Amino acid sequence: MSTSSRFFITGATGQLGRLVVAELARRVGPLSVTAIVRDPARAAGLFPAGVAVRAGDYDQPQTLAAALEGAERVLLISSNALGARVAQHQNVIDAAKRAGVERLAYTSVLHADTSPLGLAEEHRQTEALIADSGLPHTLLRNGWYTENYTASIPPALQHGAFIGSAAQGPISSAARADYAEAAAIALLDEQAGERVVYELAGDAAYTLTDFAAELSRQTERQIPYVDLPPADYRGVLIGAGLPAPLAELLADSDAAAAGGALFDGGRALSKLLGRPTTPFADTIAQALKG
Ligand SMILES: NC(=O)c1ccc[n+]([C@@H]2O[C@H](COP(=O)([O-])OP(=O)(O)OC[C@H]3O[C@@H](n4cnc5c(N)ncnc54)[C@H](OP(=O)(O)O)[C@@H]3O)[C@@H](O)[C@H]2O)c1
C-alpha cells in the first residue's frame, strides 16, 4: 500500500476525529492525511476530498497493522469503549511501533497522572504503555469538552433546571474544536522532543451555576442550576435513558469537578492555538442554534 500521507488519525469518524482530520487537511493538504476508521461505510462524505481512508479496528490488531503501514505521525484518539480501552490502545501502540512511526500522539485526560476522575485510570495505563513503547510521543491531556454540558441543554429547557453534581467546582472546559485544532498543531510540530505533555484546558473557568445563568440569559428563561448528590444525579441520568456506565462516569466526573479536578489555569491550550479558547457562552449559543 503506497501513500503520500504522513499524518494518520485513528478513531477518525468520531466527533473529535473528524475535526482533527479537517484541521490537518486545511493545514497540510488532504493528500497528507489518512483517516483510520472502524467502519469505512461511515466515512462516506465525512472528510475533505483527497483524504485517504483506511479501515482499522482497535479490537482487531491485523487491521491496525495494515492501517498504519507507511505512517509517520499518528494520533491515537482514545476509544469510547469504557473498560476495554487499555487493551484496545495497546493494539494501536503495538501497531505503531511495528510500523516504525516517528511520533505517536494520544488524547489523554487533564492531569492524567494525578486526576481523581474514575475515567482517568485507563488514560494513566495507556500513557504508561506509550512510555514503555519507546516511541517519541505527545500526550494531549484534554480537559472537559464544553459540549459535555451543552448536551444537557435540551433536558434543562424541558424541565426548567440544569442539574449536576459539580457544586461550585471551577470547570476549565473548551470547545471540542479547540482540542482538535491543538491536536493538529501538536502533530505537525517538527521540533517536538521525545516526550511532550500538554495540559489542555479552557482559558476561563466557570461553575455550573455560571453555566445555567448564561443559558438563562441566552434563552430569556429562568433555568437555575440544581446540585444533586452524585448518586441522585446518576439515578436521574439513568431514568432519562443513559446507559448505567455512562451515567456513572458523568456523576463521578461531576463529583470530582466539585473538588477542582476539571480546573487548570495554565492556558497551555490557548498558547498552542495562538488565540483564546472558545468561551463557554459561544458553545451554548452554538448549541441553541442547533
Ligand atoms: N475531554 C472530554 O471532555 C471528553 C469527553 C468525551 C470523550 N472523551 C474522550 O475523547 C475521545 C474522543 O472524543 P469524541 O468526542 O470524538 O468521542 P466519540 O465521538 O465517542 O469518538 C470515539 C471514537 O472511538 C472510536 N472507537 C471506539 N471503539 C473503536 C474500535 N474498536 N476501533 C476503532 N475505533 C473505535 C469510535 O469509532 P466509531 O466512529 O466507529 O464509533 C469513535 O471514532 C473519546 O473516545 C473519549 O476517550 C473526552
Would you mind describing this structure in some detail?
α1 (15-28) links the parallel β1 and β2 (33-37). This protein is an alpha/beta fold and 290 residues long. The mean pLDDT is 96. The chain has helices at 15-28, 61-67, 85-99, 120-133, 147-150, 153-159, 176-188, 208-219, 230-239, 244-258, 268-273, 280-289; strands at 7-9, 33-37, 52-55, 73-76, 103-109, 137-142, 162-164, 195-200, 225-227. The strands form 2 sheets. A 7-stranded parallel sheet has the order 3-2-1-4-5-6-8, sandwiched between helices. Strands 7-9 form a two-stranded parallel ribbon. NADP nicotinamide-adenine-dinucleotide phosphate binds next to α1.
List the helices and strands and how they pair.
Elements: E1 7-9, H1 15-28, E2 33-37, E3 52-55, H2 61-67, E4 73-76, H3 85-99, E5 103-109, H4 120-133, E6 137-142, H5 147-150, H6 153-159, E7 162-164, H7 176-188, E8 195-200, H8 208-219, E9 225-227, H9 230-239, H10 244-258, H11 268-273, H12 280-289
Residues 11, 13-17, 38-39, 57-59, 77-81, 88, 107, 142, 144-145, 148 line the site of NADP nicotinamide-adenine-dinucleotide phosphate.
Sheet of most strands: 7 strands, parallel
Estimated radius of gyration: 19 Å
Series of secondary-structure elements, N-terminal to C-terminal: EHEEHEHEHEHHEHEHEHHHH
The count of DSSP E runs of length 2 or more, i.e. the number of strands, is 9
Structural class: alpha/beta
Which percent band covers the strand fraction?
A: 5-15%
Overall geometry: globular
Mean pLDDT value: 96
Helix content: 40-55%
Bound molecules: NADP nicotinamide-adenine-dinucleotide phosphate
What is the rounded distance between the termini? 41 Å
Strand order within the widest beta sheet: 3-2-1-4-5-6-8
Contiguous uncertain segments of 5+ residues: none
Number of helices, where a helix is a run of at least 4 consecutive DSSP H or I residues: 12
